Amino acid sequence: MSETQSEAQTEAWTIKRLLDWTTEYFGRCDSDSPRLEAEVLLAEALGCERIQLYTQFNEVPQEPALGNYRAWVKRRAAGEPVAYLVGHREFYSLKFVVSEHVLIPRPETEHVVVEAIECSKHFQAPIRIADVGTGSGCIAVALAKHLPNSRITAFEISPEALNLALQNAKLHGVSNQIEFCESDLFASFPEGQFEIIASNPPYVGTREVETLDANVRKFEPEIALFSGPKGTELIERLLAESVERLVVGGYLVFETSPIVMESCLALVAHQSRLEHQKTVRDLAGHQRVVVCKKTG
Ligand SMILES: C[S@@+](CC[C@H](N)C(=O)[O-])C[C@H]1O[C@@H](n2cnc3c(N)ncnc32)[C@H](O)[C@@H]1O
């Protein structure tokens, strides 16, 4: 091999070199998980699984995959979330299609699913479950997969989000278990009660907008984030409507933020027919999910 040839080879943009370079670049752009994000983007551009990157470290990606990857790296560095770039995100070990119309499913919301499954043990099948503000459908679909004898109604105010939730239910073969309802909370569903109501409602106050991550604010849908100046406005309505929609002995499981947790617990205490059962911390140690029971 001539000297120029061997130089060209060491300089080639192999998978390993692309990953190392991008990891370092994303690290400088304040990414929380630069290596993971680089791997997800490159695997998607090459149409392979992440693990396969490691078995092809010395391969040199070609066009158009390389061009697509470079464009994504640029957009990610400018703040766009990886899930929107590649069009999917994993939640509860299931793959969910996402778009700019829905909140990207978060790991902390998996606690809502865990707690709802725990509550389901108090009832005989078929269990009726509501998912209020279904977004991508991540809670409804994960529950349908894990509770095959449940009947789920997924409520959502945004028609675009509802479409995506339906798409995800089909992807996971559970669309026969879930009814999709375009609705402001329960308003379009005049009758019917549930053993369990699960919800990850919008809970950011417009007055704390400055505390929100700039990229979340820029890219994720406002309707999924904000519920009014205080942040508890929708939760207050959800609590009042849930009292009417739960069977006696039924459970409401909802997610909120540590910032408004105290106010949320005060709102629960204000509902005489709801009893606070527990508050669950997320993996970062923040109080995140509230479980309450309808007592009368
Ligand atoms: C925080 S996101 C949660 C999405 C999804 N459940 C998740 O956990 O990723 C809140 C969702 O509630 C929907 N939403 C907002 N206001 C609503 C309302 N009044 N009635 C029903 N859904 C609402 C939003 O469109 C959004 O999809």
**SSE order, one letter for each helix or strand:** HHHHHHEEHEHEHEEEHHEHEHEE
Helix content range: 40-55%
Structural class: alpha/beta
Terminus-to-terminus distance: 83 Å
CATH architecture of the largest domain: 3-Layer(aba) Sandwich
Radius of gyration: 22 Å
Bound molecules: S-adenosylmethionine
Mean pLDDT: 95
CATH superfamily of the largest domain: Vaccinia Virus protein VP39
What's the main sheet like? 7 strands, mixed
CATH topology of the largest domain: Rossmann fold
Q: Which CATH C-level class of the largest domain is it? A: Alpha Beta
Counted by DSSP, the helix tally is 13
| Low-pLDDT regions | none
Q: Strand order across the biggest sheet?
A: 5-4-3-6-9-11-10
User: How many extended strands?
Assistant: 11
Overall form: elongated
Strand composition percent:
15-25%
Total domain units: 2
Give the helices and strands, then pairings.
Blueprint: H1 3-11, H2 15-28, H3 34-46, H4 50-55, H5 65-77, H6 82-86, E1 88-91, E2 94-97, H7 110-120, E3 127-132, H8 138-146, E4 150-156, H9 159-171, E5 178-182, E6 194-199, E7 204-205, H10 214-219, H11 222-225, E8 226-228, H12 233-245, E9 246-255, H13 261-270, E10 274-281, E11 287-294
Parallel strand pairs: 3-4, 3-6, 4-5, 6-9, 7-8
Antiparallel strand pairs: 1-2, 9-11, 10-11
Helix pairs in contact: 2-3, 3-5, 7-8
